[in-house]
Design brief:
The chain is mainly α and about 150 residues long. It contains six helices and no strands.
Length: about 150
């Protein structure tokens, strides 16, 4: 039986959609889509399973297993300057952490949040400096016309 046939059969026997979500999450996990792309990643799929099946051990285990590699992905996004995407991904990890409190001594999310805030501040300062340069050039050009 093909994977699509198995998914269709499982969906027919699972009115809540948990089986389908688990299948999609497993595929995302194998493809290493931990927090991206939007709508098709491990965290979104497994976090969608838990309200339907709060005790789902597979979802909990996979979320826990993917946590540190997903944090690394968020850190990479921040470093590459993709701040809005990093914010979205960080929100997913915070949703997981807030609901499951795996390790009270793990400050990784707080550190990532601080790193993201610092990068946003640097970007704002860069834009402000660019705006001052543009304003200076416009002022100089206007003075030259007079």
């Amino acid at each position: 039986m093909s994977a699509q046939a198995k998914a269709a059969h499982a969906a027919a026997n699972d009115s809540s959609g948990v089986t389908v979500l688990l299948g999609l999450a497993d595929r995302a996990f194998r493809e290493h889509h931990l927090v991206a792309p939007i709508g098709s990643n491990v965290y979104e799929f497994y976090l969608s399973v838990l309200p339907l099946d709060p005790g789902n051990k597979l979802a909990m285990a996979r979320l826990h297993e993917a946590f540190m590699p997903a944090c690394d992905e968020v850190e990479r996004e921040i470093g590459e300057g993709h701040l809005d995407e990093a914010q979205r991904e960080l929100r997913l990890l915070r949703d997981y952490d807030a609901n499951h409190d795996q390790d009270k001594n793990n400050y990784k999310l707080a550190l990532l949040g601080s790193y993201l805030d610092a990068q946003r501040t640097l970007l704002i300062r860069k834009h402000e400096a660019e705006a001052l340069q543009i304003r200076g050039r416009l002022t100089a050009a206007a003075a030259g016309e007079n």
